[in-house]
Design brief:
Mean pLDDT of chain B: 85
Strand content of chain A: under 5%
Shape of chain A: globular
Low-confidence stretches of chain A: 303-308
Radius of gyration of chain A: 23 Å
Structural class of chain A: mainly alpha
CATH architecture of chain A: Orthogonal Bundle
Largest sheet of chain A: none
Largest interface: A-B, 27 and 36 residues
Number of domains of chain A: 1
Order of helices and strands of chain B: EEEHEEEHHHHEHEHEEHH
Structural class of chain B: alpha/beta
Number of strands of chain B: 10
Radius of gyration of chain B: 18 Å
Helix content of chain B: 25-40%
Mean pLDDT of chain A: 84
Number of helices of chain A: 15
Oligomer: heterodimer
CATH superfamily of one domain in chain B: P-loop containing nucleotide triphosphate hydrolases
CATH class of one domain in chain B: Alpha Beta
Order of helices and strands of chain A: HHHHHHHHHHHHHHH
CATH topology of one domain in chain B: Rossmann fold
Shape of chain B: globular
Distance between the termini of chain A: 53 Å
Helix content of chain A: over 70%
Distance between the termini of chain B: 42 Å
Chain lengths: ~300, ~250
Amino acid sequence: MSLTWLFEPFRHEFMQRALFGCALIGFTNGALSAFIVIRRLALMADAMAHSLLPGVAVALILFGLVPGTLFIGALVAALLVAFGTQIISNSSRIKEDTALGLLFACSFSLGLVLISFSRVSVNVSDYLFGNILGLGDADLWVIYFISLIVLPLLVALERPLLLTVFESSVAASQGVPVNTLKYLLMGTLVLSMISSLQAVGVILALGMLIAPAATIYLLSDSFTSMFWLGGTLGCVGSCTGLLVSFWLNLPSGPCIVLVLGVIFLLAYLFSPKYGVATRLLRPRHLHEASLARWKLNEREQTSANDNEPQR
Amino acid sequence: MSYHRLEIKDLTVSYRRVPAVHHVNLELRCGSCVGLLGPNGAGKTSLFKALVGLVPLETGSMNFHGDSQSLIKSAIAYLPQRTTVDWDFPITVRRMVEMGRYQALGWWRSFRQEDRRAVDRALEAMELAEFGERQISALSGGQQQRAFLARALAQEAHVFLLDEPFSGLDKPAQDLLSGAIRRLAGAGNLLVVSHHDLRTVRDLFDQVIFLNGELVAFGDTNLVFTAENIRKTFQTHIFSGSAHEPDLVV
């Protein structure tokens, strides 16, 4: 049997572009997802995705369908929602999630109203689900530069960011600029969202911003590996998804997210330490450590000195 | 041992112009273990937060053997209540203690031999050496509290502010923790511990601070820990300024 079908995708220029874009977006979003998962910003990311809409709409009305202006419109809208949320939650008794929910609903509605004024007809499904096979040079440059900003920033600020996400009051007491770092994290989230806009659309970008680190979170007890392995998983998973979509002739965005989802499901079930199925397969109560201790106690007929429980 | 002290002068902390701690004056000696006692809302946590610069001072100042607050960030370690931490955070005990070194290392410099030794020493001092590779939620409450202490030790802090470290611990865990705290004080550190279980005060602290919005009393435990002061602190209104209805705390 001929295996040419296997290498078929690499022969097309549009697929080479798509793979390159996928690898970059996958890695950046995957690495960033460590922070999204740990800081519990999943809802925030979702909201951000929706709030890009009014910015895109305003840009469309003012300038028509020009990629650069759409990018800037989306950036401004998302930043307004992100900072608006922080400002409302810091200055009143309204909590972050409430402020965010409110702002993003308003922002999305405003976007829909504005789009009805646009003379250009807008394909909302492209916005929601992206079109990675249609990546142009400008899109690739945007993706490339955003990765070039986001990744080095996260790597350089690893320690203060880690202190901040672990326990922000202790971090602040040690002189870490906690609030600045939180805004910065928001900023990088917005940037990655925008770089995903053209490729997989905002809804599916959410999958790439959550699934990789969520998977690694079930496999490892190290934040550093969540970051790097999350990036690697995002990169490999996205490219795999894209290839699968080509081979099976399926839509690309959903394939990417489904591949990441299946990998997550496997970790959820079979992670050696935190897997659900693994836990069920383990002999109940009498796993090795406690069994050994129990036998030891029985033999010596003395109680263990260590009163503190073990898990 | 040199005679180090933490001086707090006329310290007032307010939230949105409502004062939580009023004009507190204290002079705390290094080498002692001080209990901070008061009902809920008495301003214990606010006092701690003011000392580490988490909330702005309305009035007053503090200094630690001559240096003002901005100079002593690494000398003071704040250990928050256990409930404020996400114990599912993907980090091992050792990595958490290593965080104490970040301040000395800055944002980029890599770990040196001496940093690793400082972490080892801190873990050993808190009897956690064997738990270094455990994820932090796989520790008991007392061990978690000692892991916080180890982190502060690795930071080479001199003043330890502990927010309700004994709450929720059973007797053996309490004993282990108080032993650790005693040893730290014995080594010349200053430990200020907020606490609400009055039965254990005499066993734990050299000195006590009674706080009720205002400073009610401060001094050696055997002199100040009296029924009169306890009543004054716990069974009266918390002083929160004349403009506000006082809350009755019994």
